[in-house]
Design brief:
27% of the residues lie in helices and 35% in strands. It is of the alpha+beta class and 197 residues long. Strands 1, 5, 8, 9 and 10 form a five-stranded mixed β-sheet that branches. The chain has a three-stranded antiparallel β-sheet with strand order 2-3-4, with no helix packed on it. It binds zinc ion (ZN). Zinc ion binds at residues 32, 34-35, 37, 49, 51-52, 54.
Length: 197
């Protein structure tokens, strides 16, 4: 006789696999990672284990988006070579690592993705975004920074399948996979206007 919880697990897992839309974190992680009990309470922000008391927070992961300004004032945009949103345009950047600031993450990502050294001039606001990955809808919080290259010629890594300089106004019209990118570019345009007498 299969225990009820195991039967439920199979049914839920099958349902998740058959969905075409990414599953929310609360529906993707049904079991406590510490004791294995089915979560008794699940919300968009938190799942709570009634057995061992674990609180599993579904908080967004911090990321950085680099608005990389060239000598002529144009922005270096990249086209994504990997999912999520493969083939759409993006700014260089990525996930912050443990014990890393947003600025440190930007410098590391520029080295890894473009093989250039950058200097961050301004940290703008951050924007919430969805990040569909492994058929799960993760949440990210992307801080946008304004930076420039201080050494090296941009050479794209495997994650990038094309790169090109655009004016900020042109960049606004690019096909983005992540809707927050348009807002990030707009933040840059607004910031630039403040500096213009
Ligand atoms: Zn537990």
């Amino acid at each position: 006789m299969i225990p009820m919880w195991k039967a439920l697990k199979v049914i839920r897992t099958t349902c998740i696999k058959n969905q075409h839309m990414p599953t929310s974190l609360k529906d993707a992680y049904l079991y406590c990672p510490r004791c294995g009990e089915l979560f008794a309470e699940r919300s968009d922000s938190l799942s709570t284990c009634s057995e061992c008391g674990l609180h599993l927070y579904h908080s967004p992961k911090p990321c950085v988006g680099i608005i990389l300004v060239g000598d002529d004032g144009k922005l270096l945009m990249v086209r994504r070579g990997r999912d999520p949103h493969i083939g759409t345009w993006d700014v260089p950047g990525g996930f912050c690592e443990i014990n890393e600031t947003v600025i440190e993450a930007a410098i590391r990502e520029a080295e890894e993705e473009l093989h250039v050294k950058i200097e961050v001039d301004t940290v703008l606001d951050s924007l919430p975004e969805k990040y569909p990955y492994n058929n799960i809808e993760h949440s990210i919080l992307s801080a946008f920074v304004i930076a420039r290259i201080v050494s090296g010629q941009p050479t794209p890594d495997d994650d990038i399948d094309d790169m090109k300089y655009f004016t900020a106004e042109e960049a606004l019209g690019l096909p983005f996979g992540f809707p927050s990118l348009k807002k990030g570019i707009q933040m840059y345009i607004d910031e630039r206007k403040k500096d213009t007498p």
